[in-house]
Amino acid sequence: MTEIEKKDDVKDIEKVEDEPRKVVLSPEMCSWTNDEDTGYEFEIILPGVEKDTIKLKMGEDTLFVIGETDTVRYVGSYTLCCPVDSEKATSSYKNGLLKIHVPFKEIEFHTVDVKIK
Asked: How many CB atoms lie within 10 A of CB 115?
């Protein structure tokens, strides 16, 4: 049996539809290794975004950024080909350009001697 919506429920639905929606975009991003080949440099373009709305997270092999304006929400998720030391990452933001520097993680080789017979 189907229930009939109350008149008040329809008003609530109309209110939600009247709220402006933000456009979701992937920001433009450029990356390269630094001149010494010791880490990555990233530049992410976030036009019109205020610094306090930016969320930047990094893992050993991932980079995730969100930034918002009144009408746009920028969301970017990137996989890195080489492990980085995210705890040593530095960043700056000015005029819509987020710059990030992160060194490569030191590769640790755990080896054991194998007996040859």
From this structure: 5
